[in-house]
Amino acid sequence: MESAPSSAVIEFLGVSYHVASTQVLSGFDLQVRSGETLVLLGRSGSGKTTSLKLVNRLLSPTSGEVRVRGVSNADSDVIRLRRSIGYVIQDVGLFPHFTVEKNIGLVPRIQGWPEDRISARVRELLQTVGLTADTASRYPHQLSGGQRQRVGVARALAADPEILLMDEPFGALDPLTRDELQREFLLLQRRLRKTVVFVTHDLREALRLGTRIALMEAGRLVTVLAPSEFLHSTDSLASAYVRAFGEGLESAAHRGTS
Asked: What's this model's pTM, rounded to 2 decimal places?
């Protein structure tokens, strides 16, 4: 178990989660530090998405405790908690009958922001994620996959949350668009310094985007390492990941830190 740094924003303390007789997570201990991008890496079924959903209480642990900003989720107001955390998923989840402006402005509108402030925030975020101002009046079906994903990121950032949860956000995109959005994410994170938990099964993506990589297998935490350490880890599972992905991993890690 890692010792909890004073700057931990999210903590998993002995967390287990099961559905009926299926153990999804077991004895999970992890801390996410302020301003870092902590990547949850693992194969399908390793517990990555479940871990993510425990942070914003889409799920609750069977045992153990999840803390956000030092407060147990069990003691938090779930609505207030979720509004304070940005959430980006692979299929974006935009409301199809809302314009881009209404999708991005949803949480600020719920929180009672005045309309002029919402409009200014939408314009600011469209520019931040690389979309033109006229995108605001379009509907999701009028956008490309990459544009929809950018809108999803903008929506997650709308109320300026400290924490971002990102579940395979670029996984459904073509390689060129995925590469472009990864580069833009790195630039955005260097400027905004959000605390990000990022789920992926792609080692190259983990090496490129992560401050640290938490490798998961069968609902357990295997190891937590910086990208450069992961490449040279003696852990058998980490080594297997590196061998499976083959050449080009050193350059991927370099792109993530340069």
From this structure: 0.88
Mean pLDDT per block of 10 residues along the chain (258 residues) reads: 62 94 93 96 92 96 95 92 89 87 93 94 92 94 91 92 92 86 91 94 92 93 90 80 64 57
Query: Is 2 in a helix, a strand, or coil?
Result: coil
> From CA 116, how far away is CA 120, in angstroms rounded?
6
Q: Are 186 and 209 within 8 A, CB to CB?
A: yes
Backbone angles phi, psi at 4, to 5 degrees: -75, 120
Instruction: Say what the pLDDT of residue 3 is.
Output: 42
Q: If we measure between CA atoms, which residue out of 35, 29, 36 comes closest to residue 11?
A: 29
Which pair of structure tokens corresponds to residue 182?
A: 């990864």
| Cα dihedral sign, 231-233-239-241 | negative
Q: Which own/partner pairs from 201-206 qualify as long-range (CB within 8 Å, at least 24 positions apart)?
A: 201/41, 201/42, 201/43, 201/44, 201/48, 201/168, 202/171, 203/41, 203/241, 203/242, 203/244, 203/245, 203/249, 203/252, 204/245, 204/248, 204/249, 204/252, 205/39, 205/170, 206/39, 206/41, 206/230
Q: 């991005």: which residue's tokens?
A: 104
